[in-house]
């Protein structure tokens, strides 16, 4: 689904546009205050923000709103060719039976930039979500999987930790999936994370699935593909999803918005080595683990632990029921790792019982939806014929100081609006 046209009203109060699903087009008017929108949110919430835009759709034929949503969803499946339908059915069946090859193929589908494949991916996701909802109902409404974000600077010991921790979890009967979000893959073509040689034993473990997640060059890309890969892994029966990032960029902020718990791994080094770590990332952590706490490194690890305990006291708490903790671990000696898992389970339990986990997941759905909208709208703006040819010229004039950025933006927006 994409939004090929979007207009802002002269009073800047509402957005109206044309929303195109793969097979139909709809007009919609969306106002920040729902009662002023042409479509109010439908009673049945959609779980995939990829289809959330449909909540505000008002078809030009004036169908009742619930029907309109239904029609849009049906539109997604009705138009599949036999071959496409067979592919979606095969992937879905294989995925929920836990076949890794089908999971891998399904993730490749959601990562595709090909527009038709993206549509097929949405059909598949919708089926997986319906299955997921059923399973969650059977689980008395409790989430089926624990989503954990794991970040740390290069060399912090992430892969050594995941190898040790992952083996421990699979031995305890869990199914673990590791999604490595690699911001470097889009700029350098190289891969810092997700390289299977980093976790040799775990990658041979049939209860673990390791997957690098290319970012398609944008933060929105991280959000879409990683969120959708999480859902597919959950559909495949993985009950612990680890999303790994290198803590030096922006992607961990996106990742923190898609997981239940965010963990920061820090090496026992101070000053310069931790310069790359952004303060904001520490603020997002529910748990900070100082790695390599063994041998000669125990003393510096204790020092860093004490520093972070004090630093965290000064930060604003993000949860009403959980105080971020700082622990020491060693993936070499195994020290602290069982205790770390206990803390993680404690976090999940506390968040679940208090209702904060459910609220957090709901909020994340909204963040996800808006980041998809933003990505699509900006892309549409940039490629719009009235704007595209003017961008290089105006950028040049802004760079040379001949035009203020504000005026340049106004001119582009004006050109964009005038063509609708
Ligand atoms: N002493 C000790 N060394 C460790 C431990 N964990 C990792 N190391 C060492 O630290 C170095 C970096 O470990 P990695 O696990 O590759 O770190 P990483 O964070 O995955 O690094 P990138 O792949 O660069 O992101 C390696 O030489 C490891 O052997 C530990 O628990 N104790």
TrEMBL record:
Belongs to the SIMIBI class G3E GTPase family. ArgK/MeaB subfamily. This is Methylmalonic aciduria (Cobalamin deficiency) cblA type. It comes from the Eukaryota. SUPFAM superfamilies: P-loop containing nucleoside triphosphate hydrolases (SSF52540). Gene3D superfamilies: 1.10.287.130, 1.20.5.170, P-loop containing nucleotide triphosphate hydrolases. InterPro entries: GTPase_ArgK, P-loop_NTPase.
